[in-house]
Amino acid sequence: MGIFRRPELEKDNPVAPQLYIGPRRRRKLLQDAGHDPSSTGGHLAGALQTLIQAAKRFSESVPISKSNQKERAALLKAIEEANRLLLKD
Predict the structure, then answer these.
(1) Disulfide: which of 15, 16, 76, 79 matches 8 by Cβ 3.0-4.6 Å?
(2) Burial annotation 59-73 (CB, 10 A radius, 16+ → b, else e)
(3) Taking the C-alpha atoms of 38, 39, 42 and 47 in order, what is their torsion angle to the nearest 10 degrees?
């Protein structure tokens, strides 16, 4: 079975070759998604709020253990900083 493994198809494999997306296709994908990178100012606060909520849900779902305490503390600190930035505006 190991002979038929294809590591390039495995999820999150840093060695896997990445699909090249040229500038025309990238622009077309951005247009289709309705996202213009030059006009992110108005949507940045909404995106940050969504990210904060997702990070909170994630931190609550992960069990607290000694092995992930540093990462959890860093995530909670980043959530606090993002909230501070949102309240400043």
Answers:
(1) 16
(2) beeeeeeeeeeeebe
(3) -60
**Tokens 């289709």 -> residue:** 32
Task: Compute the distance between CA of residue 83 and CA of residue 49 in angstroms, rounded to an integer.
Answer: 8
Q: What is the pLDDT along the chain (89 residues), one digit of tens a residue?
A: 556 666 666 666 666 666 677 888 888 888 877 755 555 555 777 888 888 888 888 888 888 888 888 888 888 898 888 888 888 76
H helices present in the chain, as ranges: 23-33, 41-61, 69-88
